[in-house]
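tmp note - Deoxyribose-phosphate aldolase
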Amino acid sequence: MTDHFPRPEGTPLTLDWFETHSVNLSAAQRRAATLPTRRSVKKEWQAAWLLRAITCIDLTTLAGDDTEGRVQRLCAKAKAPVRADLLEALGIERLTVGAVCVYPTMVGHAVKALEGSGIPVASVATGFPAGLTPLPLRLGEIRYAVEQGAKEIDIVITREHVLRGNWSALYDEMRQMREACGDAHMKAILATGDLKTLSNVYKASMVAMQAGSDFIKTSTGKEDVNATLPVSLTMVRALRDYKDRTGQMVGFKPAGGLKTAKDAMNWLILMKEELGTRFMMPDLFRIGASSMLGDIERQLEHHITGRYSAANRHALA
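out:
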């Protein structure tokens, strides 16, 4: 990942910024419902937005039966996410995804497969997805992934700290995780489906940023409820509030349940409406997805040919 701004360093834990903050659920739902209707992006503009979405995808495999071969195929797709004939028709010479995200033991395979491509490898860590292993093991897992070559670490928080309002424990734990990441960027997964309220989502977002997270991320993809627009709206407004207070720019990553080109458009619209064009770039916006890429490629082919192809013509890998 190339930085175009100073890396966020975090701040001391400052409860005054969030402890009494509450989020109006119905208001957040109403605002989220208007987002897809407020901006119409059609024809060549829609194709351009979908190409941008591809550059923001963390192409992901987090399955129990992952193998070196599967990771190699995923990396091949990451380097060539759209068929060459479609790119040529669109006037694009080269396009890649934002990163490839795998388990720590798969990092070495991904690094080897992506050598020379400029695509970073992201690794989940810290006892993903539950995050309930002892802290020394979680920190050790971060260090292992970094040693294997991961440039980004997607950590999971301890949800109990949020549910009990134990903000100092959450902050201290995450500061240690940030230190263990070293030069690798830390993406903090809040597992928002487990946090019960949007107010908790806002507070956890603020603590994660104060602890020095480079990104805040909605979900592991393993919860019953993953990324939703009201949750994402709450998180990006926390991100905006943090930027206004500190000047530090922190990225956002929705993950879990985003599967279609329409989903990509909706979340890009959220970023455009709430934060502006700068936050539609891959150094500040990522989408955790796998199947989404196939649907985006299908929509791009429709834009070029006027016809929809069968979904199986755009296999993931």
